[in-house]
Amino acid sequence: MGARIEVKYFNSFVLRKIVEKSTTTTPSQEGGWPGLPWTPTVITDTGDIVNYPAFPWGGGDPSLEEYVNWYLEESRIKGGFNNAIMELGVRAYAVDKNPKKTDRTNSLIFSGVINDRTGINNTNVFSISENIIKDADPVHGSIQKLFAEDTNLIVFQENKVHKALINKNTIYSGEQGAQEAAGISSVIGQLVPYLGEYGISRNPESFGMFGYRKYFVDKDRSAVLRLSRDGITEISSYGMRDYFRDKLATISDNLRARKIKPTSSIPVGTYSTLIISDTSGIDVGSQIEAVYDTGVHATGSTVTNIVSATSVSIEPDYVVDATLGNITGFNFITYKRDKIYSGWDIHGRNYTTSLQTSPRSVSELIEDKKEREETFKTLSFDENIQGWTSFYSYQPIFLGSLKNKFYSFIDNKIYEHYAAIGANHHGKFYGETIPGESNIEFIFNPSPSVKKNFNTIAYEGDNGWEVESITSSSQKYTTIGSQVSYQDNADPILSYEEGIYTDWDGISKHAGFNRKENRYVANIVNNSAVRPGEVISGTSMSGVKGYFTTVKFKIDDTTDVGGAKELFSVSSNYVMSSY
Q1: Strands 107-109 and 12-17, sheet pairing
Q2: If we measure between CA atoms, which residue out of 527, 521, 529, 530 comes closest to residue 543?
Q3: Gap between the Cα atoms of 381 and 158, Å rounded
Q4: What is the DSSP letter of 530?
Q5: Rg of the Cα trace of the chain?
Q6: What is the 3-state secondary structure (H, E, C) of 284-307?
């Protein structure tokens, strides 16, 4: 049987035929095979088992047996008798005597360059002949975040923050200080630490920036920090040191198992897909736990795909075992770390951070609203007043600004804050209109060391605001064998429209806020219980007593629902308490 090949460049090629081919032994055990590499057994389209050599064939379709019996043995340049042979070439390999993985969490490793103008892309090239590793001090923990700014690279470790030059290096001399070194190239230069023993802990999601200011949270040191031209500043000390000390201590690095969602009863059988009522809150990788009426909780498969809004696929197939009892449902267990999501609000010009002991996908499923609100605290820092200005009632999974607009991400949706969405759409939060939930809390605390009676309250703004509650500071009294705490409370104050009523004389009057001199004013009516030793108490007196008082304003449910309602200022008239 002959074979024909095309000869190029006057080179000669010598072919050799395999004398015998077997499906059970390798050709190296057969006559005629030179011991070249051999590939695994392959089944052809016709069902034949063929061992293809990993070496050029004589040509043609390799799936046909008559072509795989030949292999290329040698070739000589220009066909000369003793000329150089065209070989297969060098086959590079390396033997690693210690192939174990090494975690270099405090090191930076960089690849070759990428240049889209010239078409050079060496991002997958890591040359061992060059110094491509920059090590940070391991005592400062792992590198959590990198931020490139102009010609500098800011490196955030768990316990330290460094700055490094990019594509240049510096030398230091006693006479001239730091200078850029000529003729010395370095992708990442020397790591120069910022003053202060602060880092970003293990919460890179807490980073936010605007202009030359960078903000981040070091929960290990109970500090919220700002990095700017003057170095690192602890902004949590601006009136909120104790608050952040207590709240950041509750943020854990440990993975916590949380049951996401139970399903209805499922009969005995084997399942690769589970049909449930709602897949929101279920993550790919969630572990399946079957709950039996005998009290047994059996774990098994994991979620591999969210098929639709009502079904998930799992792997491996889950077997409902009848010997354990009747199954009452499935739990989807996910493992989550506590998070500190942060970002810059370019509209409100403040740094907003959300401390979450349970991420949104978990706490969102808590039915009790008050319990759910205790799993997170979202608040903002304003540079203009150098203080923390507001708490917010939303729990995001990401925050960020783009082109003068502030966005937050909730589940798989993105929402624009402060959006001008037209008339009668105010008080709409994340797709749901809840006018009564739009509220603001104020703390009146003039002359902090003086005991006061708060008698009236007034505000400047639009019609439609009402006072939901007025509560004074807590005061403790010691009785026989116990200590009792008392607070003054006041009746709610209706809005201007809701407080209108007609008296017996037919004249309209106001039981809540009334307009006077372009302000809305109202008396504070006390409804507290009698305290020990009180001379005048309860409804016999006007106002509430205390060092300070907390007032909660909210939008009513009737006045121009969905319309804009602004609140410019709130004040209270008070006198020093004489009893």
Answers
A1: unpaired
A2: 527
A3: 23
A4: P
A5: 37
A6: CCCEEEEEECCCCEEEEEEEEEEC
* Measured distance CA(276)–CA(313) in Å, rounded: 11
273, 313 in Cβ contact below 8 A?
yes
For residue 308, the model assigns a pLDDT of: 85
CA angle 275–279–281, rounded 5-degree value? 150
Per-residue DSSP letters for 412-446?
Answer: TEEEETT----TT-TTEETTEE-GGG-EEEEEE-S
Residue 350, strand partner residues: 345, 382
300, 292 Cβ separation under 8 angstroms: no
Retrieve residue 255's tokens.
């993975």
Burial of 143 (0-12, 13-18, 19+ CB in 10 A): buried
CA-nearest of 337, 342, 336, 368 to 354 is 342
Quote the pTM value: 0.67
Whether residue 448 is preceded by a cis peptide bond, meaning omega within 30 degrees of 0, is no
Exposure string of 191-227, with b = 16+ CB inside 10 Å and e = fewer, is beeeebebbbbbbbbbbbbbeeebbbbbbbbbbbbbb
- How far is 353 from 206, CA to CA, in rounded Å? 7
Long-range contacts of 428-437 (CB under 8 A, 24+ apart): 428/562, 429/394, 430/394, 433/562, 435/555, 435/556, 435/557, 435/561, 435/562, 436/554, 436/555, 436/556, 436/557, 437/393, 437/554
- Tens of pLDDT, residue by residue over 365-421, are 566 677 777 889 999 999 999 999 988 888 898 999 998 999 999 877 899 998 876
For the chain, the first-to-last Cα distance in angstroms comes to 121
Are 34 and 73 a contacting pair, CB within 8 Å? Answer: yes
